[in-house]
């Protein structure tokens, strides 16, 4: 286990710094906008530009990295996203922040592609599961750590943005100093939407529902907690525990989905997410402990929905091109990311903080009903069962490239 960690220590360090900075910034931005008097709907509109930039970066990133090289791309775009964080702290302008969020999303996608390509270079079939589990533990621990800084400073304190910028730019140091050669880029591409829809409708709608739920939570839950009258320290602890809970059930659910009909597992996940949302929307509004419990149960289950849907899609396509399958399914997830916060913010405007979880409950209940309906169909053949892959909500298509590099191919080296 120690040797496994040491073999990818530079990637783990870079990922930890990047994720800590990104999640710190992602929580601080809606709090700052809310403190400046912007409504939930307007805040969601500003922040959805990150999702748009991320989708664009996921599609264009592999080609750009193939031309310039992993380390150069990482260093350049880490510096660019650092500048965006500093500009957020220097200017409070909603139109400017839309542009900055789009740029940040594009940069974030490229940085994750580089990190995940490096993970794949170490992920032989024999140790892929263990390495991915360690990567995800590192990812969520760093994200939770970043949340804790929220309670240290006041909402409008520019030092929060400076700290996030420092973490983001420092993430380029471990990879810039590594002596290991850069990995080759996997083949990219996308499945046609018709092919995607015919292969697994439950995966298409499940990815959109997962994007709806996760983006709504991360963008609006800091605001909802503040609207309930809690201080920044409570917001920090709330978000940190929610992030940590995201990794708790990924492995058990993955084991379960590899043994049972994945459609039934997906149905169970959607019911659990809906139940957690209902708990947070009702008892959570009356008791802080129940709000914490509901949010932790929510992220623990919701974070497993997209990986389960992706595994189901790969089952139905026989795992022929997992990168293309993930790239296409990520577009469905991204659509949910764009629509979710806008709808949830509208419901919050009507009924208050509970509207966040009410909107998620309604969407996941509808998806659960659809999943139950799909169980009636006999056309459920699995062409070639593929393993469940634990992954974060912001993973990029290259993370599912399970083919090890050819023995005869030499990894590309960086230009000096």
CATH architectural arrangement: Up-down Bundle
The computed structural class is: mainly alpha
Cα gyration radius (Å): 20 Å
Order of helices and strands: HHHHHHHHHHHHHHHHH
Total helices: the number is 17
The H-level CATH homologous superfamily, spelled out, is MFS general substrate transporter like domains
CATH domain topology:
Growth Hormone, Chain: A
Query: Any idea what the shape is?
Result: globular
Average pLDDT works out at 83
**Percent range for β-strand residues:** under 5%
| Percentage of residues in helical conformation | over 70%
> In the CATH hierarchy, what is the class?
Mainly Alpha
Q: How would you describe this structure in keywords?
A:
single chain; about 425 residues; mainly alpha; Growth Hormone, Chain: A; disordered C terminus; MFS_trans_sf
Task: Give an account of the 3D structure.
This is Major facilitator superfamily (MFS) profile domain-containing protein. Keywords: Membrane, Transmembrane, Transmembrane helix. GO terms for molecular function: transmembrane transporter activity. The chain contains 17 helices and no strands. It is mainly alpha-helical and 416 residues long. It has a single domain (9-176, 190-400), classed as Growth Hormone, Chain: A, CATH 1.20.1250. Helix 2 runs antiparallel to helix 3 (40-68) and helix 2 (9-35) runs parallel beside helix 6 (128-148). The longest helix is centred in the C-terminal third of the chain and has 30 residues, at 322-351. The protein is globular. The two termini are 33 Å apart.
């Amino acid at each position: 286990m120690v040797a496994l960690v040491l073999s990818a220590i530079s990637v783990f360090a870079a990922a930890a710094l990047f994720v800590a900075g990104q999640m710190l910034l992602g929580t601080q931005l809606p709090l700052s906008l809310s403190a400046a008097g912007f409504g939930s709907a307007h805040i969601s509109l500003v922040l959805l530009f990150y999702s748009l930039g991320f989708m664009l970066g996921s599609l264009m990133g592999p080609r750009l990295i193939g031309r310039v090289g992993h380390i150069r791309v990482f260093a350049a775009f880490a510096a660019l996203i650092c500048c965006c964080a500093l500009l957020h702290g220097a200017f409070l302008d909603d139109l400017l922040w839309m542009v900055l969020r789009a740029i940040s999303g594009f940069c974030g996608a490229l940085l994750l592609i580089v990190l995940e390509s490096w993970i794949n270079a170490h992920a032989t079939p024999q140790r892929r599961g263990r390495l991915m589990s360690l990567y995800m533990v590192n990812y969520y621990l760093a994200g939770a750590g970043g949340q804790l800084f929220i309670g240290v400073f006041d909402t409008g304190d520019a030092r929060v943005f400076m700290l996030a910028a420092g973490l983001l730019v420092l993430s380029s140091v471990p990879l810039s100093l590594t002596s290991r050669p850069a990995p080759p880029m996997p083949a990219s591409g996308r499945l046609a939407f018709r092919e995607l829809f015919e292969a697994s409708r439950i995966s298409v709608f499940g990815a959109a529902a997962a994007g709806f739920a996760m983006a709504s939570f991360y963008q609006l839950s800091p605001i909802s907690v503040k609207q309930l009258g809690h201080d920044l320290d409570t917001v920090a602890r709330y978000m940190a525990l929610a992030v940590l809970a995201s990794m708790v059930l990924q492995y058990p659910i993955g084991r379960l989905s590899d043994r049972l009909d994945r459609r039934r597992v997906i149905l169970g996940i959607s019911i659990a997410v809906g139940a957690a949302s209902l708990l947070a929307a009702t008892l959570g509004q009356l008791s802080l402990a129940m709000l914490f419990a509901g949010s932790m149960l929510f992220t623990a289950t919701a974070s497993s929905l997209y990986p389960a849907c992706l595994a189901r899609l790969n089952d139905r396509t026989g795992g022929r091109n997992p990168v293309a399958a993930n790239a296409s399914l990520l577009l469905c997830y991204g659509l949910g990311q764009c629509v979710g916060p806008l709808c949830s913010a509208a419901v919050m405007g009507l009924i208050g903080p509970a509207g966040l979880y009410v909107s998620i409950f309604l969407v996941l209940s509808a998806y659960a009903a659809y999943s139950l309906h799909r169980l009636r169909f006999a056309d459920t053949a699995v062409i070639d069962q593929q393993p469940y892959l634990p992954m974060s909500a912001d993973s990029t298509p290259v993370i599912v490239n399970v083919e090890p590099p050819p023995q005869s191919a030499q990894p590309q080296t960086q230009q000096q």
